Amino acid sequence: MSDASPKMTDAATESGQSIIQNGDLTIVVSDPTKAADKVTTVAEKLGGYVESQTVSKATGSEPASATLSVRVPSAKVDEAFDALAEVGDVTSQNRSATDVTAEHVDLKARVAALEDSVTRLKELMSGAATTGELIEAETALSQRQQELDGLKAQLKALEGQVDEASIWVNLTTESVIPGGPSNFWDGLLAGIASLGTAGAGALVVLGILIPWLVLGGVIALIVIAIVRSRHRAKARRSAAQPTAPLQEPLETTPTANEAP
């Protein structure tokens, strides 16, 4: 188990600052689906909830896994990390804190100013003496109200991030072979999948080799044609050359010892 950062406290409460806290953990478990249920239970006990969840079953060489986005009160983020560490074997964890005090103060001031502006415009509308003044006040009020609604939405989102910490939990299974399947059936499926992969790879290699094989065949045919042409030319030259006449045997004259 590793702890990549020191524990954090609710800085927004203790010092008046607005702090957004985020973190993530990678946990090795035997069953990601059951472990995901435990993570949900941890979040609910701390007054939080699971914002999103993805569970993937083992497929081929990919082991089963689960990913959850958990939101918990910022004041309980340390308790959340401690409780989540008991779900399995924590292989890594990271935590961060972002100070958004200036942005928070600015948004609150702009919201307050627009609320005052809306109030004054409503008073002007109630005391408008002419239709033109009323229409002008209504137009200005509509614009101010739209701006106010947008700033209120931003302020609400920011305060939500300050009040609740976001923690990403990655649940994985430990493989018997590093980077490989975690059990027999996963290994069997991986082997079957590898057959298809090998077949596809062989087709790719064949596709690459076919042009070279065709080129090599054409070159071989040209060479064979040249060799045969030379053999034919040589044969024709040999046939065209005259053959030497056979020499007749010489007659011998009888000697004195031989009978006539």
UniProtKB/TrEMBL annotation:
Residues 250-260 have a biased composition (Polar residues). Pfam families: DUF4349 (PF14257). Residues 104-161 form a coiled coil. InterPro entries: DUF4349. Residues 237-260 are annotated as: Disordered. It comes from Leucobacter coleopterorum. Keywords: Coiled coil, Membrane, Transmembrane, Transmembrane helix. The keyword DNA repair does not apply. This is DUF4349 domain-containing protein. It comes from the Bacteria. The chain crosses the membrane at residues 202-227. Residues 17-223 form the DUF4349 domain.
